[in-house]
Amino acid sequence: MSGHGGQPHGDGSDGESAPLLPSLRHPHPSGIAHEGESGRSGFHPQHFVSVLWRSSSQVSMLVNILWPFVPAAIILHFVADAPLWTFAASYIGMIPSANLLGFSGQEFARKMPKVAGILIETTFGSIVEIILFVVLIANHNASAGHGSSDEGNLIPVIQAAILGSILTNLLLCLGLCFFFGGLRHASQKFHAIVSEVGSGLLLVAAFALLIPSAFYSALKSEAAPDHAEKPLLGAQVLHDTFTKGKLQADVLQISRAASIVLMVAFALYIWFCASSQHSIFDEVIEQDEHRDADREEDLQKPKFTMTETMVALAVSLVCVTLLLVFLVGEIEHVVRSGVPDQFLGLILLPLVEKAAEHLTAIDEARDGMINVALYHCLGPSIQTALFNAPLVVIVAWIMGKPLDLNFEIFMIGLLVLSILVVGNFLRDGESNWLEGALLVVVYVIIAIACWYYPDPDVATSNGLDGSAMVNVAMSKDMLEQLQQLLKTGLGQ
Predict the structure, then answer these.
(1) Residue-level pLDDT at 10
(2) In this predicted structure, what is the pLDDT of residue 223?
(3) What is the separation of C-alpha 109 from the centre of its chain, rounded to a whole number of angstroms?
(4) So what's the pLDDT on residue 34?
(5) What is the pLDDT of residue 441?
(6) Which pTM was predicted?
(7) Which residues form the Sodium/calcium exchanger membrane region domain (predicted)?
(8) For 5-34, what is the mean pLDDT?
(9) I want to staple 38 with a disulfide (CB 3.0 to 4.6 A). Which of 150, 303, 342, 437 is the partner?
(10) CATH of segment(s) 2-485
């Protein structure tokens, strides 16, 4: 998105009235947009390394000093038997790898027509998250039941990572954008359409994501034990056809159906943004194109050729995929070392897979492009809720693994409250450093609470086993006395 933040309307038409679908009537002779033209062709190793090192901003350039952790993670994985060190090296190595993927996606987007570039850049921003979700579900052990990650059950981690990705964008990334932008500019005003459309879509997405959880919570106390289980003390259940297994199967089917509908909704959202005469993209570009503090410097920076862009994309995708496979493979050992499932999924994983995108958004906010920065915070959250999360449910369905959208009550509360807090800060159309600091404070409090939240095999706030059944140990004599008391009481 940053690559288009200052793109002028070359045809002289008003961005408010021009549709965003690319026009082929006057294409550039080279087929590449003017802003992405490098003036060269082919692959030049020295130039490639130079452009890669400079990256998109000074902060992103500093991230490149972490590249040695990538080969270190590979060596540790194949040579050493040190799972925690492998996890740590892979975790740190993910930051420059994801940064390269984001930067190369931005370079590719600059060479495309305006809308195509915006949508392509947004897609590349979510590739890391999609790969993470797919690797997690591929490593899930379906026979682990309701145990924690040290037993191979990665569903709680996946569900936490879905919501954690949304919360990280809404609270941490948005808070840092407000904070650092506010340090450089006393107050930053953003267009109302950003907050209205962003907040509205997030509420709709959250509503759709939480329906399976609401369905489960409403009916879990009415579900009878499965036929394989003996009723407690010989008690008879009136509705023995609606069992725990039936309820869980219904929730799974609802989650799969809702996922398909959400993906259709995301396609409609993208089509509307691309074809509408008054698109959110037009609003963002129109208001921010003259605010970029370092626009001239960005335009003068050397750029990748199309060949170099493809090489950078391929290298970054290979590195990201390898490191995520190493990362997920060591989750079992990390959980055994004392890191809770919820903290791992809700905080640690979203932080590393969103790091590059957050750096870009913060740099845009500092340069005065607050609308574009807001889109980098709200847009990925919307895509996670409407596309990425439903996609992993469908992929799990294809793999034959029962991933549903039945989230823990604790996480549901965090999501709803976070959307309300962010919506309240966006309502006035203005931001300052204090609002940013408060959003970061909320995120830190959530991180602290997640650290102390028990693992799924202990806490089942939205599960039948934890709410409807009580594990009671008693002797045979005590059980006979209790049955005698019940018969006496019924006889009277």
Answers:
(1) 41
(2) 67
(3) 21
(4) 47
(5) 94
(6) 0.78
(7) 84-273, 310-450
(8) 43
(9) 303
(10) 1.20.1420.30
User: SS3 sequence, the chain?
Assistant: CHHHCCCCCCCCCCCCCCCCCCCCCCCCCCCCCHHHCCCCCCCCHHHHHHHHHHCCCHHHHHHHHHCCHHHHHHHHHHCCCCHHHHHHHHHHHHHHHHHHHHHHHHHHHHCCCHHHHHHHHHHHHHHHHHHHHHHHHHHCCHHHCCCCHHHCCCHHHHHHHHHHHHHHHHHHHHHHHHHHHHHHCCCEECCHHHHHHHHHHHHHHHHHHHHHHHHHHHHHHHCECCCCCCCHHHCCCCCCCCEHHHHHHHHHHHHHHHHHHHHHHHHHHHHHHHHCCCCHHHHHHHHHCCCCCCHHHHHHCCCCCHHHHHHHHHHHHHHHHHHHHHHHHCHHHHHHCCCCHHHHHHHHHHHHHCHHHHHHHHHHHHCCCHHHHHHHHHHHHHHHHHHHHHHHHHHHHHHCCCCCCCCCHHHHHHHHHHHHHHHHHHCCCEECHHHHHHHHHHHHHHHHHHHHCCCCCCCCCCCHHHHCCCCCCCCHHHHHHHHHHHHHHHHC
User: What is d(CA 127, CA 117) in angstroms, rounded to the nearest whole number?
Assistant: 15
Question: And the tokens for 402?
Answer: 């029962």
The CA distance from 234 to 255, in Å, is: 35
Question: What average pLDDT score do residues 327-351 get?
Answer: 86
pLDDT of residue 226: 61
When pLDDT is cut at 50, 70 and 90, the band that residue 491 belongs to is: low
**Separation between Cα atoms, residue 144 and residue 142, nearest integer Å:** 5
